[in-house]
Amino acid sequence: MGKKCDCPKGLPGWLVTFGDLMSLLLCFFILLLSFSTMDPAMFKEVSGSLKNAFGVQRDEMIYDVPMGTDIVSRDFNPIFSVDVILEKIKSAVKLELIKGEIEIEALEDRVVLRLNDDLTFEPGKADLTDKARALLDKIRPIVETVPGELMVTGHADSVVINTTLYPSNWGLSAARAASVVDYLLLPRTVDPKRLAAIGFGDSRPLVPNTTPENRKRNRRVELIFLQSPRPDEIDIRPPTGKGLKEQEILPVPIT
User: Fold this and answer.
1) What is the per-residue pLDDT for 205?
2) Does the pLDDT at position 179 exceed 50?
């Protein structure tokens, strides 16, 4: 017969062996620590790296109530990228681009979308055509989802006009730019603070106004996607059936 365990009543025999093992390991690591040397300079460097890695903060006096991070805004406010917006526009208006009804130009900090006069307006008028409305319906989702500002500019040729509604090319070009902005804002899914309408008249031609073809090219509306100088102040969220921000429709201004 085997030797009877003399451990305390109620405790298994393996527990005594486990306790002896833990005691030996503790003595072993204490012995290693006693033989080791501490480099103060190295310890300071390592502790500084850990502080930066884990975000240890200093005590500072604050006067405002801390606000939480808006996860939706952080995740859905993408960084402005000319290449990204350029690809979005090309995908949305591929057919019009093939027909030559629009032009796209990518610059360092902006993307310019040019709409030909024949596509957008009838001569001497500022009312959008059906084709223009259909095109802007494709552009609006891009305006809703990319950060930055949109400047809509109207341009005319050098032929002087004098109508009851528009006494000059300046008035006509400004009215056309405003018509585009009004239509983009119609569903109230775009913040009006991000849009601007400007009329340049015939002051900024693309080509000299020497031929009918050149004058036709100079009559245009441009949608310029700009990087905002203060992108953190612009709140862009994916539009749903309910519109902006907390998915609420912007209120109708009281007149």
Assistant:
1) 94
2) yes
Query: 6 by DSSP, 3-state: which?
Result: coil
* CA 181 distance to own-chain centroid: 20
Query: Strand ranges (DSSP E) for the chain?
Result: 102-106, 110-116, 149-155, 195-199, 220-226
Other CB atoms within a 10 A radius of the CB of residue 154 amount to 28
Please, which pLDDT band fits residue 240 given cuts at 50, 70 and 90? very low
Cβ neighbors of 205 (< 8 A, separation 6 or more) are: 155, 157, 158, 214, 218
Q: Is 144 left (phi over 0), alpha (psi -120 to 50) or beta?
A: alpha
pTM of the model: 0.60
Q: Is 40's pLDDT higher than 90?
A: no
CA 250 to chain centre: 19
Q: What does the domain layout of the chain look like in residue ranges?
A: 79-233
CATH superfamily for 79-233 is OmpA-like domain (3.30.1330.60)
Q: Which helix (H) or strand (E) holds 45?
A: helix 40-53
The answer to whether residues 239 and 176 touch, using CB atoms and an 8 Å cutoff, is no
Q: How far apart (Å, rounded) are the C-alpha atoms in residues 148 and 141?
A: 14
CB of 234 closer than 8 Å to CB of 150: no
Q: Which of 210, 224, 222, 223 is nearest to 157 (CA)?
A: 210
**What does the pLDDT look like over 117-155, one tens digit per residue?**
888 998 888 999 999 999 999 999 999 988 888 999 999
Helix (H) / strand (E) element for 178: namely helix 169-184
